[in-house]
Amino acid sequence: MALTLHGTVSDNTVALDRKTVPPIFINGDMAIWQRGTALASASGTYACDRFWYAGTGATSQRSTEVPSGFVYSNKLTYGSSDMSIGQPIELPATGKQGIFIAGQTVTIAFYGKVDSGTEGITVNINARNEKFSGTNSTSFTISDNAVTLTTDWQRFTKTFTIPTINANNVMIAFELGGIGKTAYFTGFQCELGTYDSNSIADFQFEDVATSLARCQRYYHKFTSVLWGCMISTSGSYTYRRCSHDYPVTMRAIPTVSDILSTGITFTAQGQKETNCGFGTNSSNASTNAYVGGATFEAEL
Q1: Is residue 263 a contact partner of residue 227, using CB atoms and an 8 Å limit?
Q2: Which of 135, 125, 96 is nearest to 188 (CA)?
Q3: How far is CA 185 from CA 29, 78, 180, 182, 251, in A?
Q4: How confident is the model at residue 1 (pLDDT cuts 50, 70, 90)?
Q5: Cα torsion at 127, 161, 251, 261 (round to 10°)?
Q6: d(CA 202, CA 189)
Q7: Other CB atoms within 10 A of residue 78 CB
Q8: From its phi and psi, is residue 115 left (phi > 0), alpha (psi between -120 and 50) or beta?
Q9: Mean pLDDT, range 259-279, rounded to an integer
Q10: Contact call for residues 37 and 20 (beta carbons, < 8 A)
Q11: Is 210 helix (H, G, I), strand (E, B) or coil?
């Protein structure tokens, strides 16, 4: 969801009421995995909802290896090159800073560990046009962005100074980089202000239904049956149509893929941010023509 302000602004400082404002990171506790709970060698794509991962031969999968209080973590299994993981935070509009006021600070917190030994990684934030593009990228500044993972769960915090973003930026791109060993992460948290591991607030859990709805703004899929109703007949063509209403309004008109159809091949037609139609012009008059599933993606 786009970030909107619910709180107070005084002396160019934002104060958010954590009782009424949703967490800035979506699905920070790794609870939602709409695409499946184990994705192999799909570098640069999403596995756990709202968190992309990258790394040659790397895999991302849901794990129950967790710190106290959590149910799931994201296990990144090392392949043959350093891995990274991140989430793009949607700005309220292109070039609009929203709650990220220039000159103020923002603190990132997360839990992490590795399978063996130790591993130094980096914590990075940039305002960007696209999550993997350096064009017009504006860096959030920090004196030391390094942390060291061990075989024990640790909670890390890093505080950044917010820059004036570029007029073309659409997101705040958070990323952990340089991960050269199999590692586990959970409890991603973003708080406005300066905190350390002792002063930062407890992780703000959301109920699963609320977290899922926030994720579905960017991606969702359905597997129910939509029967293709015959609309009219003209010549040798039988026109069949059906439609799917999204569970929430999506961020943008989504890309529709993985359409499962039976009897007749359906294609997406008339996609909107709120619903999608499916249709076919076919001489096959089968009464068993239906759409049995599709995916809808409007990720940043």
Answers
A1: no
A2: 125
A3: 9, 14, 14, 10, 26
A4: very low
A5: 70
A6: 9
A7: 20
A8: alpha
A9: 89
A10: no
A11: helix
Q: Which residue has the higher pLDDT, 224 or 245?
A: 245
User: Which pLDDT score, from 0 to 100, does residue 6 have?
Assistant: 41
Whole-Å CA distances, 194 to 20, 109, 201: 21, 11, 11
Q: For residues 110 and 156, is the Cβ–Cβ distance under 8 A?
A: yes
pLDDT tens sequence across 106-148? 999 999 999 999 999 999 999 999 999 999 999 999 999 999 9
**Quick one: tokens of 288?**
């068993």
Q: Using 50, 70 and 90 to split pLDDT, how confident is the model at 75?
A: very high
Query: Model pTM?
Result: 0.89
Query: Contacts for 91-94 with beta carbons within 8 Å, 24 or more apart?
Result: 91/2, 91/3, 91/127, 91/165, 91/169, 91/170, 91/171, 91/172, 92/2, 92/3, 92/4, 93/2, 94/167, 94/168, 94/169, 94/170
Half-sphere exposure of 138 (CA within 13 A, CB side): 18
pLDDT one-digit tens code per residue, 182-218: 999 999 999 999 999 999 999 999 999 999 999 999 9
What's the CA dihedral at 98, 3, 53, 245 to 10 degrees?
Answer: -140
Side chain identity, residue 239:
Y
User: CA dist 27 to 32, 62, 160, 203, Å?
Assistant: 7, 13, 22, 12
| Residue 183, token pair as written in the block | 């590692």
Confidence of residue 38 (pLDDT cuts 50, 70, 90): confident
